[in-house]
Specification:
By secondary structure, the protein is mostly helical. It contains eleven helices and five strands; from the N terminus they run αααααααααββαβββα. It has two domains: about 1-170, Ribonuclease III domain (Ribonuclease iii, N-terminal Endonuclease Domain, Chain A), CATH 1.10.1520; about 185-285, Double Stranded RNA Binding Domain (2-Layer Sandwich), CATH 3.30.160.20. β3 and β4 (about 245-255) form a beta hairpin.
């Protein structure tokens, strides 16, 4: 465990005063020989939310509260935090006695690696295991306790020292919504003459979706004079009585030299999987 603690400290560019905190932060409840990360996860969860809220509030002074809330929610989702864990390799240091759970983690890690830096707005081809998000929250909680509950110091871990590319500072959803999307239409362009009405609901897993998303995405592209969305199957598995599908959708914006891609969540019907992909794309395009 000492080697794991030292390596995580190197990744964080932070040396713990109380290294026992980091040991605890890396310990899953299945490992019964030591205290698990659950208490640190408890405090790390709201602390990450508050730190990101502070960052968004200061960095984007012109955004209204609604947009700020959307960006905050997007960046503290299980999916986004799990990707942070994978990006920094935190999954390699988890103490556990639950190999089936870690097999799920490895499948997610492999799926992320196969994406080859494509823009994935919501879910990828494999659902993010909650343990990965838990680890990010517990590590943040451990740092927060170790710096004597100083939120400003915690954020300087997160914002400037986490990696050479400052991945956590350039929050993924904020980057998609605020950097990529505004550049799709030149600043001198006039607003679209016809708005596409969108109705929102939640699916069986509690994810925000756009109703009749595939149809609405077609309308959106026609209105923008973009090419028609192209759907591709990313996953088709399971026995005949319990098939599971994941689809992605691409939009080629020739005049901008861009190809946008988004993946949906795993569904039991092709139609639902394609609608999920379309919904993810729409949610990205409107910055929700």
């Amino acid at each position: 465990m000492e080697a794991s603690v030292a390596e995580v400290e190197r990744i964080l560019c932070y040396r713990f005063k109380n290294r026992k905190l980091l040991e605890e932060a890396l310990t899953h409840s299945s490992f019964t020989e030591d205290v698990s990360y659950e208490r640190l996860e408890f405090i790390g969860d709201p602390i990450i939310g508050l730190a990101i809220s502070n960052h968004l509030f200061v960095t984007y002074p012109k955004l209204d509260p609604g947009r700020l809330s959307i960006l905050r929610s997007a960046n503290i989702s299980t999916e986004k935090l799990a990707r942070v864990a994978v990006r920094h390799g935190f999954h390699r240091f988890i103490r556990h006695s639950a190999q089936p759970l870690m097999d799920q983690v490895l499948r997610f890690v492999e799926a992320v690696a196969r994406e080859n830096h494509s823009v994935v707005s919501h879910g990828g081809s494999v659902k993010a295991p909650k343990i990965l998000a838990d680890i990010v929250e517990s590590i943040a909680g451990a740092v927060y306790v170790d710096v004597a509950y100083d939120l400003e110091i915690l954020w300087k871990f997160i914002a400037s020292a986490s990696s050479s590319q400052k991945d956590l500072a350039k929050l993924e959803a904020a980057k998609i919504a605020l950097d990529i999307l505004p550049s799709l239409v030149p600043p001198t362009s006039k607003p679209c003459s016809r708005e596409i009405p969108l109705n929102f609901s939640t699916d069986e897993d509690g994810n925000t979706i756009v109703e009749a998303a595939k149809h609405r995405l077609n309308e959106y592209c026609e209105n923008k004079k973009w090419s028609k969305p192209v759907y591709r199957v990313e996953k088709d598995s399971g026995p005949s009585h319990d098939r599971r599908f994941v689809y992605s959708v691409e939009i080629n914006i020739a005049e901008e030299g861009r190809v946008l891609q988004a993946s949906g969540y795993e569904k039991s019907r092709v139609k639902d999987a394609q609608n999920s992909a379309a919904s993810s794309m729409l949610l990205t395009l409107i910055g929700r």
